[in-house]
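We treat protein structure as text, and this decision shapes the records that our systems exchange. Below, we set out a record of this kind in full and without editing:

***
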Amino acid sequence: MRLSLVRRGMAAAMLMWVCGHAANAAPQPEGIPYPDLSPAVRTLLAQDYLTADERTALRIRHGTWEQGDLSDPIARASASLIRGAWNDDALRDERTPALDRAEGSLRRGEPEACLTLCEGQPGPRALRLRGEALLDLGQTKEAIEALSAAASHAGAGTLADVVEPVLARILLSRLREAGHADYRAMMGSLSRVREQVDKLAWEPRLAEAALLYEKDNYPEAAQALTEAMTLNPRLGAGWALAGQLAVDAFDMDKAEAIATRLDELAAPSPSPEGAIVRARARLRLSDGEGALNALAPAIEQFPTHRGLLAARAAATAATFDDAGAKAHLDALDALAPGTPMGYMETGRAMAGARQYDEAADALRLATKRAPAWAEPWIELGLSELQAGRLDSARVSLEKAASLDSFNVRAANSLTLLREIASYATIETPHFVVRYKPGIDEVMAREMGPVLERIYTRVTGDEPGGIDHEPEGKTTVELYPNHRWFSVRITGMPRLHTIAAATGPVIAMEPPREGPGHKAGAYDWSRVVQHEFTHTVTLSRTRNRLPHWFTEAGAVYLEDSPNDYTAIQVVARAYETNTLLDFDTINVAFVRPARPTDRSLAYAQGHWMYEYIVERFGAESPLKLMDLYAAGVREEAAFAQVLGITRREFLDDFRAHAGKRLGAWGVVPTPEHPSIRELLSASAGATEEAPTTPSDAMLDRWLAEHPANPFVLDAAVKRMLRATKNAPTIDDAPLLERYAAARPVDPLPHKLLAAIRLAGPTPEAAIPHLQYLDEREQYTAAYATELSRRYLAQGDLTRAMEKSLRATRIAPYDARVREFGAMVAIRAGQLDDAQRHLEALTLIEPDRPIHAERLEALRAMKAR
């Protein structure tokens, strides 16, 4: 098993040093800057008593060397070890100390050479290097012996006498169960050497960061790393650890920039640590091909580097090349028999790709190979948690906690499992709803019928339906507040604010206002329908389909009209010729190059999916899914199902999008020119066109272009300025014309609804309220008002329908509940009325009127 002090975790604290610039450091390339050099180091370097050689040695030690400082191979080797330039000739030069050459050999993936160079060398560093090299050769028993000797070394109290035994103990903690006192002893030793031996030493701080990282104590690890990097801004191991922090915090831009920094430090050869950071970042984005591309240059230079080979196996598995992944794992085993690293990396990658069975197989093998190492047990437990297999998750996480009682991630995950275990459940034919007893029962007991309707729609064979039923029941976990929801989705590689599907589990925050809640009211049925679509497509395809396609299918199956904001995003991209292609649309979901790219990816993907259904038939997306699941690439799948190439599809789609946008009055057409085009046409050949139309121009255009949406939009804006946003019935004809010319803009409907409701015929507001309610996700106002209008008309069926929708959007709003109870009683739906009143006793337990009304209703039902 290969030790790398760069370990996986998620940064919970910002690394302060990435925000500053270093004094006495190398020139700054674009990207992440070097950290500021510690003032104490700057003061030391400025001391007059230093000889030239002493100053040079200090500059090298603290990463501030100049080219002239590296005049001999020993100095170059020292600098190369610091910056991670393992291929530097100085690390092969016979004049370089043997242990420095041994370190270089080990980091290049040449453990045999490392062992040879360590022969006859005294001290804990030689023993630690020997132990690492033996691990790289799969000789675990011998490695434990060497590392145990290093860990028990008792020297004269020098820096190496303290730091090297700690590094050995970190390795040993993966090979044998460590006592609780061991962690405290290591931290105590590092603290003493930092405070008593050398206050400017970066080694104990880096070791402390690695140890805290091993325990998933991210805030303190980040603090220790910050301190180390200010003492040596060119510290390659520190940059590598920072890169892993960025990956696990899902800050991929920072991770890529740090990988670039590592390559710059290691130049002219690529950095294997940088390649691993870059590959892991891309694996978190479900980009197996990108991860392989990131690894290739480093593997060419370091073909036996165990960390690179483990990452290659994981990346190959992420491309769903099972045979290739197995071949790479076998090749790694040939170099390091019995190593858990390949299976550990592969299992983690498979869990991130929602391939939970494959993840479990790989991670269980990793735990068998390294039963004392907590991390594979943690990853297995978290993967099983995402898969909804709570008993299995608990066993793995309890094992991890028993191995490492100081591991924060294991402890937090067990706390989450205990929280979930305290929840009550409600079962329907196809779902299990988990909720915390108390007020959330209000929503939980109403979810069943809606969930079953969603199931029928999503799994059915109506246009857009996935025509597939997943095995077993889907679990919907209703968390009591944003904090618990955030804990549940920690580490998930997607942007989630309300709900998230991990496959057979959908976690969600309730649509509730107040302290501890960020979501507020929202149409939870629409959100769950989107997430359950992911569950079903995952089941049908094993998640083996392009990212844009799975999101597009889920948006399509929301069964809701196009959002105007999304339409405007697509329109801007169409007009500026910046619609996404099939490569950039996948990246835009998780690594957007522009602020609007993620929104564009969702909107454009939805339109593309819809276009496939409309042009090629409702079966076409399903046929594509099956080909993707079978491992067929997107280009070949398009040719087989759609009969055209992806390039041809995009060309046709662009033409389709242009026609659609033009028909909706969102982009100019020859029939309906834009205001800019009209202004240009109004200017003479030698005149400069005005930037805004005068009132006279606008009046003339309204007469000449009565259906032009751009002219009508300008006229509506002028009217709103004149009326101070309070239009009257006299303005209704203009608003009606604008609504007809640009049917996707909700503004005229909002204004017309307000005008009609204030007028003598409020029922005339119904079409506009209906339009708005169909598109609304975050307020129950339109549904409530529609219910009132239908109630006034005596249409009790529609009044009930809209009042039920209002309570779905705002199930914890007492006013909405009271209104719903009144409508239900009027409609003779006493069971619904009782449900609302029972909810009110939970929502407002301090108001006795609710209990009194509930008793009165029960008495009414008993008559």
Q: What stands out?
A: Strands lie at 424-427, 431-435, 474-478, 499-501, 505-508. The chain has 43 helices and five strands. The domain at 422-543 is CATH 3.40.30.160 (Glutaredoxin). Confidence is low (pLDDT under 50) at residues 1-29.
